[in-house]
Write a structure and sequence with these properties.
By secondary structure, this protein is of the alpha/beta class. Helix content is about 40%, strand content about 15%. The protein has a 5-stranded parallel beta sheet, sandwiched between helices. Helix 2 (about 50-60) runs parallel beside helix 3 (about 85-90).
Length: about 150
């Protein structure tokens, strides 16, 4: 007698490439790992290495909705413009894009600022890359990226 063995469904964050993720991370190795993992899960990734570059990129695409990010991933501590400063600047400029923050220093001040500026989720570093991918997918779905 044979048994039916259920097939594992694909990972829930296997996503069409139309989901665009902007990533700002100053650590080259970590940025490379995030980009590779997000791309492997089907996301279109636009990486930058610092907050000022990300702010300039957001300014460049402001008038082109087809180029807007669906989700933004920010490192909290970066040289120059920090992830929290960038998040505040995004909100002041009207960006309502969901933001994932990554921090090696999740103290009360960081968490309070993340909440005040409506970060969607905060991950402690080192973050599990699959968890970050899953969060990106869920945020894209919650914000109407999928039918």
């Amino acid at each position: 007698m044979s048994q039916l063995v259920p097939q594992r469904s694909p990972r829930p964050w296997t996503t069409p490439p139309r989901v665009r993720v902007f990533v700002a991370e100053d650590d080259t190795e970590l940025r490379t790992l995030f980009v590779a993992r997000l791309e492997r899960h089907g996301f279109e990734v636009v990486p930058t290495r610092e907050g000022a570059q990300m702010l300039a990129l957001l300014h460049d695409v402001q008038d082109r909705p087809e180029a807007h990010p669906d989700v933004v991933v920010l490192d909290v501590r970066m040289p120059g413009l920090s992830g929290l400063q960038l998040l505040r600047a995004m909100r002041e400029r009207g960006w309502e894009t969901p933001v994932v923050l990554l921090t090696a220093f999740p103290d009360a001040d960081v968490l309070a600022a993340a909440e005040a500026h409506r970060a969607a989720v905060v991950f402690d570093k080192p973050a599990d890359l699959d968890d970050v991918c899953a969060a990106v997918d869920i945020l894209a779905r919650l914000h109407g990226k999928f039918e």
